[in-house]
Amino acid sequence: FMDETTAPVLDPGRGQTKKGYFWASVSDDRGHSGPSPPIVLFRYAPGRSGAFAEQFLDGFNGRFLQCDAYDGYDRLTEVARPQGPWTLVHCW
Fold first, then answer.
1. In this structure, are residues 61 and 81 in contact, taking their beta carbons and an 8 Å threshold?
2. CA 20 to 30 Å from 34, out of 10, 17, 18, 54?
3. 16-46 confidence digits (pLDDT tens)
4. Is a pLDDT exceeding 80 seen at residue 92?
5. Which residues contact 67 (CB under 8 A, 6 or more apart)?
């Protein structure tokens, strides 16, 4: 599962905040008798571009990604990797 949400971030020098994004990636295979414990990873990015999703998922071996219908995720269906591109399952 992957999702992103806005968060106010300090903008040094301006004395204000700007919009940033916290991205959450979740994995929990317990329902499928997976041996690994569940995990949630949080990453910060200055934007919502699908390029950040691609960067954050680099090195993950999964095949399916549950995410919302934000079109920024569409680029993941074309990523060249040994397992093949990601299959987006959206919000079942």
1. no
2. 54
3. 999 999 999 998 888 888 888 999 999 999 9
4. no
5. 1, 2, 3, 53, 73, 88, 89, 90, 91
pLDDT at 2: 94
3-state secondary structure the chain: CEEEEEEEEEECCCCEEEEEEEEEEEECCHHHCCCCCCEEEEEEECCCCHHHHHHHHCCCCCCEECCCCCHHHHHHHHCCCCCCCCEECCCC
Going across the sheet that includes 16-27, the strands are 2-11, 16-27, 39-45
What is the radius of gyration, based on Cα positions, of the chain?
A: 15
Cα gap 35→25, rounded to integer Å:
18
